[in-house]
Amino acid sequence: MDPAKAEAYFKYRTTMIVIYLTIGFFASYLVVFFAKGLSSITVMGIPFHYYMGAQGAVVIFIILLFVNAVISDKIDKKFGFDPKFVDSTNQTVD
Amino acid sequence: MDGQFTVSLILIVATFSLYIGIAIFNRARATSDFYVAGRGVPPVFNGMAIGADWMSAASFIGMAGTVMALGYDGLAYIMGWTGGYLLLTFLLAPQLRKYGRYTVPEFIGDRYRSNTARLIAAIATIIISFTYSVGQLSGSGVVIGRLLEVNTATGTMIGVVLIAFYSAMGGMKGITWTQVAQYLVLIVAYLIPVIFMSLQLTQNPAPWLSYGQIIQELQVLDQQLGITEYVVPFTEATKWQFLALMFTLMAGTAGLPHVIVRFYTVATMKAARWSGAWALLFIGLLYLSAPAYAAFSRFILMTEVAGSSLTSLPAWTQAWIDTGELSLADSNGDGILQWTEIMISNDIVVMATPEIANLGVFIIGLMAAGAMAAALSTAGGLMIAISAALSHDIYFRSINPNASEKKRLAVGRWSIVLATVFAGLIALNPPGAITQIVAWAFALASGSFFPALFLGVWWKRANGPGVIAGMIVGLTVTLSYIFAAKYGGFTILGIIDTGAGVFGATAAILTNIIVSLSTAPPTQEAQDEVTDLRYPEQVQYKNGEVWLKEEQK
Q: Which keywords, in A-to-Z order, does the entry hold (chain B) (predicted)?
């Protein structure tokens, strides 16, 4: 396999992970850090910092994980790591 | 002995029979069945099993109560425990799956080419899982004791027998399907009361959308009473403690051996990614509901219980007062119960609220069955981790490498039985509050496993001496900080014992890097193995080149 292609695959995946983690960091640590300043904004009648802690951050985390799963599958396919191969091993293992 | 008792007992017996039936049906027949369920678990079901494994008595029984008691500051638990899945799924799980071992200590030993590192990791696994399971067993003791109207010690022993039986019987394969059933029981048990309370209080069946209204009313009530406001941040601890606790719970989640091993039960890296996503979705159902649960409970207590006459208290109060977890003292002697006169333990809020809200015997019984499912499933997963560390990492890999499969299975089963009984004995008289013990387990995991796994997967230069020094320093710093903060009153930036993981993890990462760089690099073969983890299963990295494997068969 072409080493440049392999390198590109790894870079692509790593970049995506850095993006996801940065979003996760903003949704949790940064909101907590600025909690007092953000409390004047309200979402569904709840102060923003409280809403993020109780629901917003968790929902964002879940979305990030599903986006990662879908996009990773697409990247795998694009680079020719055929998912059918994976499924066939799946059955022999069981 | 009344209708409530009968209904609860029937529900608990029915769910237990289901778990045991599943365990018998899926008996382990080979070593790989026992440790990693034959590696054939589909991601959605694995997600449910991770959810049940993960959501312990602390999540089910304790979390809503903690949020209710601490207000905003309690949300560190919600964000920390869910955010850990980002670290786990993005940074560790797929790579660990590709490396393909049975246990976490085995990965550390083989990746770092060090038997000493494997032994330290096995011992750390035992310490962390054992600490954690003491909390679970004492939690199950409280629930069984309350329902069967026996004392907590007897309840704990009943829990011990059940856990020892089905973990030893089924191994990982039995536990996986048992945990799927347990997830379904616990989530239904958690959602039904919160949906009914939402209907009662707001006429809206979706608590996640309706509780904003209750939060607003709580803010008004707080101001009328002149007490600490529920939504105001950092009233119970400093901002740094909040951030440190959140980090400790996240890194600890990513390093908990019994959770990581669940990612070994799927077939591929792809399946590991999907497992992580499904797991957090299933966990999110409970975690998103917990703040609503907390707000509803507080609202009901403030408006319906507070203000009533002490002589006309409902029947549910007496049973909980008897357990010592609730006290209603009329300190100003006016015959009326004020909000400030209600002292309710965090750990009974979830169990008691359905009774307080008058939801009926069936729902209260279901709640008890759900709490038991949460405690038993986590304890079961922890026992497998302890058993694997003892029978696989220590016995098979260090003491008797020629042991037959049968012998190893036997050692695995006996270590589960012994570990459960031993943990049960300690749980008869637990050394601290359940949530506190659980937080320590997370701090220890974030100080030992998280740095070792993170650097092991992402930095090929990390070597054996580095990881040994890192784990020892990380554990030492974490333990010292817990003791210094808890007993010595020593704190940095107001960070107390539950946030100790932030110091442990930092110290361990720095130590690992410094020691690795000042000693010889790992062999080329070991470094190539780490590079290989960048790619899916079909791709292999060998001698500086990347190969696409031929399809077999």
A: Membrane, Transmembrane, Transmembrane helix, Transport
**Cα distances (Å, whole numbers) of residue B454 to B88, B92, B246, B447:** 9, 7, 18, 12
Instruction: Say if CB A58 and CB B257 are below 8 A apart.
Output: no
Cβ <8 Å between B268 and A46: no
- At B271-316, the pLDDT tens digits run 899 999 999 999 999 999 999 999 998 898 888 788 777 777 777 7
Task: Please give the ipTM for the structure prediction.
Answer: 0.89
> From the DSSP assignment, how many helices (H) and strands (E) are in chain B?
22, 4
Q: Do residues B294 and B67 lie in contact, with contact meaning Cβ atoms separated by under 8 Å?
A: yes
Q: Which of residues 24-83 of B touch A (CB under 8 A)?
A: 38-40, 67, 72, 75-76, 78-79, 82-83
User: Which of B355, B171, B384, B140 lies closest to B259, judged by CA?
Assistant: B384
Which SS3 state, helix, strand or coil, does residue B336 take? strand
**Distance between CA A75 and CA B534 in Å, rounded?**
13
pTM of the prediction? 0.89
Integer Cα distance of B271 and B259 in angstroms? 15
Of B140, B211, B543, B553, which is closest to residue B379 (Cα–Cα)?
B140
| B413-467 pLDDT tens trace | 888 888 888 888 888 877 666 777 788 899 999 999 999 999 999 999 999 999 9
DSSP state of B394: I
Query: What residues of chain B lie within 8 A of the CB of A50, using their CB?
Result: 72, 75, 215, 231
